[in-house]
Amino acid sequence: MVVPRHISLESSNLTKRRQRSSKLGSQENINDDQNSDSNLRKIVHRDIQRQRRKEMGTLYTPLRSLLPHEYVTYRY
């Protein structure tokens, strides 16, 4: 049986489309993983910076109390 040339081309195009779509699907999974890693890093960074600011505030409080009242500026 002789298969017309256009049928074999269509089947190869379908195969290529399937390969591309499977590659795109795996790239989406990679992007999702990278996004979740990026979001996790942002959350961790935010928490670390918040903790650092709290610690600096507690360290500055005793130093502020040693200054004369004329030099202390209060934030409201």
Secondary structure tally, helices:
1
Poorly predicted sequence stretches spanning 5 or more consecutive residues: none
| Helix share, percent | over 70%
E-strand count? 0
CA-CA gap between termini: 89 Å
Mean pLDDT: 75
Structural class comes to: mainly alpha
Instruction: Bin the strand percentage.
Output: under 5%
Question: What does the largest sheet look like?
Answer: none
Radius of gyration: 31 Å
Secondary-structure element series:
H
Taken from the alpha-carbon principal axes, the silhouette is rod-shaped
Organism: Handroanthus impetiginosus
Main location: nucleus
Keywords: Nucleus, Transcription, Transcription regulation
Subcellular location: Nucleus
In short:
This protein has one helix spanning 5-66.
Describe the fold and architecture.
This protein is mainly α and 76 residues long. The chain has a domain at 31-64. The chain contains one helix and no strands. The chain has one helix spanning 5-66. It is rod-shaped.
Strand and helix layout:
Elements: H1 5-66
